[in-house]
Amino acid sequence: MKHYLLVLILPFSFNFGLLASNETGDAKEKCNDVLGLESQRAVGAAVAKLGLTLLEKLQPGSEQPNIIISPLSVSLALAELALGARNNTEEKLLEVLHAKELPHFHETLSCLQEHLTAKAVKMASRLYLVPGYTVNPDFVDRALNLYKSESAQLTSIEDVNRWVEETTNGQITNFMSSLPPNVVLMLINAIHFKGEWQSRFNSKYTKENIFHIDRKTSVKVDMMMGSQYPLSMFVDRTDGTQVARLPFRGNMSLLVIMPRLQHENLSNVAAKLNISDMYARFPRERSMHVTLPKFKLEYKQDLRQALTSMGLGFLFTGPDLSRIAPGPLVVSGVQHASNMELSEEGAEASAATSFTLVRTISFFSVNMPFIFALVDDTSYTPLFLGIVTNPNPGAKTEQSDDPKTETESTRKSSKDPMSDGTLNDGPHQNMLSYMLNMWKETVPQQFLGHQEMEDGN
């Protein structure tokens, strides 16, 4: 039996520069009844769970030492696919999306998309159809009404690549090299974010410095520096992991998670992260010395293997997608492309009042492998998740000693924070296990954990 092919295409990009708001009153009014704060955070948690699970399945390698994915993009694409599924296929897709506990999941996710679009997150979906191929009109209407997925004729690969390039503001070019044989339909979802730091990094202080890939290998990268940078951060007392929040204008933040020396696999650490718990534990901002790598990274991956390990292998063999069109229809591939640019660009802002509930750290240096999350501060939805083990993969690596700071070698073992709250630096290779470990299910538990850490300090 001949199978027709459906391809999921998921390009996205983000960089940090000028923020341009396109908020509309109509979009906010439309979803006021559906998307209260509780609903926002419930669907945000569902997106986070899918993203962290997916991140756990992807491992950095020599060819791609860094991983950048968009949990929101993947969630939107799988949700749109679920609109066309029946029976066990629909059930399994909703299970992976963590949608079964959420009433009116599609409507809530649709309103979250509206909410984020009002915050300068550019999102677009397109349903490409081969001329002459008949698709269920109800599926087309629901995809358009819920996920703004406009229909278009699939005429050439150049047309697809041009749409992707325009949607990502020129950040992703030549996305696909060719069309798969027998393809009849393509679902494409693209996201682009361009944000402005609340407090900028002055470019005249950016200079080359060492980033420790592991205990014996390092690479030189351009490091941005802020001597009085307003930063909210805490140290997990169980293992010394540092968690910091760098805010953007427009109610978005970049979270940076740096585990301690003993972690061996960043993917496992990231799988255990709980974004809601981290927000509950952040103290007020405090001015401190901050260094952060400046870089531009690219990532491209077919997610078939990762999704198969999450229980979605049947999508590529024999799914029931009969709500899209009659006859056999299988997914041939799930292409995901992304890039990330981190620079000094942004507007200057006043430092926040210094008041903290935990002992603060006067120095925060991101000079070792770390996990990042670009998060909406209201819904706690991670638009982007990633692991950075080498922010300058094109540069020559060098042999180096196991890094030790001055306080580490003269005052205390690297296993514990200093008495004044200052943490020793050490290579951080494993982050995903720590992240799911922090996951708490209720708000009272989150604040109880916060109070417990305060008492311990």
Order of helices and strands: EHHEHHHEHEHEEEEEHHEHEEEEEHHH
Mean pLDDT, to the nearest integer, reads 75
Percent range for β-strand residues: 25-35%
Radius of gyration: 22 Å
Shape: globular
State the major sheet.
15 strands, mixed
Q: Helical segment tally? A: 13
Helix content bin: 25-40%
CATH superfamily of the largest domain: Antithrombin, subunit I, domain 2
CATH topology of the largest domain: Antithrombin, Chain I, domain 2
Return the CATH architecture of the largest domain: 2-Layer Sandwich
- Based on helices, strands and strand pairing, what is the structural class? alpha+beta
Q: How many E strands?
A: 15
CATH class membership of the largest domain: Alpha Beta
Low-confidence stretches: 1-5, 16-25, 346-361, 404-457
Tell me the number of structural domains. 2
How far apart are the termini?
66 Å
Could you describe the 3D structure shown?
- The chain is α+β, with helices and mostly antiparallel strands.
- It folds into two domains: 4-196 and 297-342, Antithrombin, subunit I, domain 2 (Antithrombin, Chain I, domain 2, 2-Layer Sandwich); 203-295 and 346-456, Alpha-1-antitrypsin, domain 1, CATH 2.30.39.
- It is built from 13 helices and 15 strands.
- It has a 15-stranded mixed β-sheet that branches.
- A hairpin with a 3-residue loop joins strand 8 (242-248) and strand 9.
- Helix 2 packs across helix 3 (71-83), helix 2 (37-57) packs across helix 5 (105-117) and helix 9 (275-281) packs across helix 13.
- The protein is globular, with a radius of gyration of 22 Å.
- The N and C termini lie far apart (66 Å).
- Residues 1-5, 16-25, 346-361 and 404-457 have low confidence and may be disordered.
